[in-house]
Amino acid sequence: MVHQYEDFSQRGSTPFRVDFYRSQRSTFRIDFLMSQCVGLTLASSVPIIPGMFFRSKKPKEPPEKAPAGEQWIKCPKCGELVFPNHWAKNLWVCPQCGYHERIRAHQYLQILLDEGAFVEEIAADLLPDDPLGFPGYPEKLQKTQAKTGLTEAALAGTGHIGGHPVVLFITDFAFFGGSMGSVMGEKFVRAARYAIEKQVPFIALTASGGGARMHEGIISLMQMAKTTVLVNEMAEAGILYINILADPTMGGVMASFASLGDIIIAEPGALLGFAGPRVIRDTIKQELPPGFQTAEFLLEHGMIDLVVPRKDLKKTLVRLFDLIGVSHHG
Ligand SMILES: [Zn+2]
Description:
Blueprint: E1 21-22, E2 27-28, H1 34-37, E3 40-42, E4 73-74, E5 81-82, H2 84-89, H3 105-112, E6 126-128, H4 137-148, E7 154-161, E8 164-171, H5 182-198, E9 202-208, H6 217-236, E10 241-249, H7 251-254, E11 263-266, H8 277-284, H9 295-300, E12 306-307, H10 313-324
Parallel strand pairs: 8-9, 9-10, 10-11, 11-12
Antiparallel strand pairs: 1-2, 3-6, 4-5, 7-8
The structure holds zinc ion (ZN).
């Protein structure tokens, strides 16, 4: 991992005032100084946690013993037994039924970027704070940071996809369910501004079942407006903005920047929506249609543009860049 810090990432929290905002995508009325509402702590040094990008993904279920005494991975969907090596080689997708296992951010970086090279150069030094004094939050943060090797649920940086320079913003489900707090919002803002500055496409890959992070309350919810403003700034600047929705992308993340891309791609079978299906069913007291809130259901109903298997994500992005005429030089 290479860290490069430019003045850009040392500016502190982003002060901007938005009284009224309108665009072809959405209309928001926001009347506050965003910078005063964001609880951020700028660390003086970059946290380097051993194994940050080299942790191997453990299978969700304990592998069963095969007759030969070998270790297998059992597909949770179809029950197929697969060798761990084969499972990883198949990008953590079941070769039998196409079930896509939830994977970590660093695994997506390996899959999407040329030679897996990611430079986490955007706001890598931002650390979450406990602005509301939420009971147990600081301890839980510490524990999660140690467990995941991440400082927050989102990473923002640069890399190349098929030779095209891109800004990549990616969330990791293993960190508080990939939920959005003040740091994720601020990282998104800085990453989007970086894409505008460098005139390169912006890819946001989300695995955020947690939506807005409850431990930061209203401050988390404000990130929805804050990130949406930047999506619109990118549109005005002519920056290509692509969403990749992994399982699951829900709540405040789905209801803001994750569903506003120029092109929205989802992985097969991903759970996508605002409230979960059980909550909706219990609220409206009705059975939901089969496949409700899956990527395929949303595609059929026009909410997303493409459902693309994990193995085809990279070549799909390259094809889109070529079709749209994205520069190789940024
Ligand atoms: Zn399967």
